[in-house]
Amino acid sequence: MFRRIGDWFRNFMIGRYGTDRLNTYLLGIGVVLMLIGAFFGRSHVWASWCSLLSYVPLVWCIFRMYSRNIEARRRENAAVATFFNRLRDREHRYYRCPRCRQPVRVPRGRGRINIRCPKCGERFIKTT
């Protein structure tokens, strides 16, 4: 019986996105908000709002998991991965080119430097 249920679920998930790191973060945020709402209960008004707000990341997680638009979900996950990688990068600063908006990575601690955009060739001065 359980084998048939497993086979049915595997067939159901064919062509769907599944889970990734962003879904894990969303699930964690939803559970934390739900626990805050349950722990503080009815003593605080904001705790009931946390309980209500906890459904937003949980529903978004389920939507992403069952989505068939795989490319859009990959772009979302890549954007989150890029954001967290930039937070961890202590050796470089990131700037945007004023002309073409291309992100440019430069080393930290060099003072005022002249940066040349690799895409359009625009030069601009920033402090690292």
Topology as H/E string? HHHHHEEEE
Q: What fraction of residues sit in β-strands?
A: 15-25%
Q: What is Rg? A: 22 Å
- Spatial ordering of strands, largest sheet: 1-2
Largest sheet: 2 strands, antiparallel
The helix content is: 55-70%
How far apart are the termini? 63 Å
Average pLDDT rating: 90
Write up what this structure looks like.
By secondary structure, the chain is α+β, with helices and mostly antiparallel strands. The protein has 2 domains: 2-88, no CATH class; 91-128, no CATH class. Helices cover 55% and strands 16% of the residues. The strands form 2 sheets. It has a two-stranded antiparallel sheet with strand order 1-2. A two-stranded antiparallel ribbon has the order 3-4. Helix 2 (21-40) packs antiparallel against helix 3 and helix 2 (21-40) packs antiparallel against helix 4 (55-65). The N and C termini lie far apart (63 Å). The relative contact order is 0.10.
